[in-house]
Amino acid sequence: MSGPHRRRRHLSLIVLLSSLAGGCALEPVERDVSSFAPLIGADTRELSNTSPEEIRRLRLVATNLVAALVQIPEARPAVATLQVRRPASAFGNLVVRALEDAGYGLQRVDADQGRNNVTYSQRFARTESGPVEDFTLSVGRIALSREYTRQGDNIYPASLMTLAGINPTDDIDLHDAIFTEQGDIGTAYISGTRMRDGAATGADVQTIDVRPDDPRPIEKRSASEHVLASARRHYSERASMRGIPDLHRYTRQGRLVLLLDNASTLYLGRENKQLVRELVKRVGKADLVVVKACHDANGRNEGANAQAVRVEEEVVAYGVAADSVRIAPCAGASYRHVMSDDRVTPVEVVHFRRD
Amino acid sequence: MQEVRLTMSSGFIRPGGVNASSGPARKIRIRACALTLGAAVLSLSSGCTMFKDTSGDALAPGATLDRIVSDDIAIILEQVLEPRSTTVQINRDRADSFTEKLAARLTDQGFGIQRVAADQGAHYVEHQRDIVLPTSGGARVTERLTIGTIETQREFTIKRNGTVRSAGPLRIAGVRIPLDAKMLSKPPLQIADPTHRVIEYVNDPAVEPAGEPVREPSFKPVGEPAGPLERIVTPAVVERVAFDNREGIDLQSLIGSQGNPLSEADTTTEVNNLFYGTSAFESELDGLERVERQIIVFPNDSMQLGKANKRLVARLARGSIQQDDRISLVGCSTGYTSLSIGNEGLAIGRAQRVIEELVDHDIPRQQIFDEGCWAPVSAGEDFPGRGVVIDIWRHPA
């Protein structure tokens, strides 16, 4: 036997022996991807085969698109159950997980079933500005797309976010700061929205510069779940600023006060949920439901607003049209009492009927 | 050896922590497979629960039970709800094996699954498993599952050889159609008695399956109640509180006890406002101007209006309040009170008392917007410590 052949045989034997000594088969060890894999129907192999850096970049994009989606009235998690297929790419897995984290109800389907069927794509292109990647997320007839460009290990938006299938809105906060946190001081990118047909949305378009104090170490960057929660909160805050119709045209039908365990909980409890169910049974199509929580002693009403949003979503979950439920704004008061954190807190729900 | 009881729950709104109960058995509540309660009793590992009896022998992997229960509930839900148009809410913080199995099963069934941070939604899932390990060996398990208004309960026994047998029929509440029982109770579940194949409908007169019994509900878990306390305060409750206070019963016993739950009528009655803080009616009062303010002062720790105050209210009703006026009414109680109904009860009760008086003078109830103002400390000069502030609001001429 020639020398090279003998060496190759020895090498094979060493590999075989070492694997037998280890008592295990030569299977690749999968990374723990549970923190970003979909909770149901994940393709963990696809995620394991993707580098952590690439997952981080793709997750930023998925978060960016889903954070915008939750702010579109007809696609809010409270009103839309989405249909998704089992993801077959790393980006797909991350989109589905972001949708889960955003609070969407997800139905698994085998084809493009359903009114809110989710599709997504990642395309590569060489443009006059250099190579860009075009990501799209669609839910039914709604589509969000944006170009992104890589810079070193990081990724940044390379275009405005394009919206289609919705009425022009200037209410979407893109939460683009998640890109600024990556670093690359001196990098600039464009932030804002536009409609697919070129029409303006009314939102500000601005150039964001990464400044020296923007970069954060990776463990201190905004978590995807927090960004998505912030996006939902932003929508609700804007929604509450829409104001309440002229109540003189309505007759008050009923009023209830839900009592929550403390100033920060979002748990309603069975009895409160039962009360909401009872109320919803009486609400007609043209009726109005006004939710009000104003118990925060600091006047900022962050905790109270979160509870108002929680109750609003509960009312909507039982079938009342989202447009028929409004959160009443709070105004300052001179007789507001300081409440301790563990104090039972009230949220008022008033049912009005159009005269 | 002593009999041991365990309770595992997931998705419950107010899980109870760890409690020891009295009686012949020791009962311990465990949340969401998160606690290892001594290796001698229960071992949990990577999504696979193994029961061990009091002798330490392994009984059966909890996965079998998980599968039986999740299969049954999925079959029930499929009959009651349309999967393609129903989304079930599961708490995102619950990662126990049963919850995961149920989510996967419902997903396969076509239901939408929504991971929620609290008890959101119309079909929020709660699960509780009570395990009794008798001294005679084996285990007796009670599975209780709630999805929205649908509630199921069933008892099982687990033999030492690992088989899971029925210990009773499936009991169900909150459905309005008779269910097909043939689909349920399939292997690996062993049916110990043919009567266990029947579905028992509990406390739901809307269900009228021929020949099937309707019994009183007995869905109380072993020992501690699973649900939150009743905390709905209505005028009727305030009345009862005021009455029972004289008998020495405190507020909590009326509005916070499972032993004295409110009647259905109470929980569905319109509830008076209990707000701290800003008025709930600012938008109602927009564009109006306040034309008069009257403060009705009550005696200390009292809801008695008294003759003088009645005259004041009568004067307002007859002389000041006009047809299109809005009346803002804030019942107050601040500072120390010796009554066990507390400042809240006093404030609400006082407001209620004045409202009754106004209504007696033909002021329409819907013209009155009542709110509360109470605290254990003084509200300063903004509101009286023990009174009701009545403001009359009117469109500018």
Helix percent band of chain A? 25-40%
From the alpha-carbon coordinates, what is the Rg of chain B to the nearest angstrom?
27 Å
Oligomer category? heterodimer
Write the H/E string of chain B, N to C: EEEEEHEHEEEEEEEEHHHHEHEHEE
- Spatial shape of chain B: elongated
- Mind summarizing the main beta sheet of chain A? 6 strands, mixed
Largest interface here, residues on each chain?
A: A-B, 63 and 56 residues
Describe the fold and architecture.
The complex is a heterodimer of chains A (355) and B (397). Chain A has 355 residues and is of the alpha+beta class. Chain A folds into two domains: 44-239, no CATH class; 245-354, OmpA-like domain (60s Ribosomal Protein L30, Chain: A), CATH 3.30.1330.60. Chain A contains eight helices and 14 strands. Chain A has helices at residues 3-22, 44-48, 52-69, 90-101, 177-180, 224-240, 270-282, 302-317, and strands at residues 81-84, 105-108, 118-127, 130-139, 142-151, 154-157, 161-164, 188-191, 193-195, 206-209, 250-260, 288-292, 325-327, 345-354. In chain A, strand 12 (288-292), helix 8 (302-317) and strand 13 (325-327) form a beta-alpha-beta unit. In chain A, helix 3 (52-69) packs across helix 4 (90-101) and helix 3 (52-69) runs parallel beside helix 6 (224-240). Chain A is globular, with a radius of gyration of 25 Å. Mean pLDDT of chain A is 82; it is low at 15-27 and 333-339. In chain B, the strands form four sheets. In chain B, strands 1, 2, 8, 9, 10, 11, 12, 13 and 14 form a nine-stranded mixed β-sheet that branches. A four-stranded mixed β-sheet of chain B has the order 15-18-16-17. The radius of gyration of chain B is 27 Å and the shape is elongated. Chain B is α/β, with parallel strands linked by helices and 397 residues long. In chain B, strand 8 (125-133) and strand 9 (139-147) form a beta hairpin. Helices cover 23% and strands 28% of the residues of chain B. Chain B has eight helices and 18 strands. Chain B has three domains: 42-215, no CATH class; 230-263, no CATH class; 272-394, OmpA-like domain (60s Ribosomal Protein L30, Chain: A). At the A-B interface, strand 2, strand 11, helix 7, helix 8 and strand 14 of A face strand 6, helix 2, strand 7 and helix 6 of B.
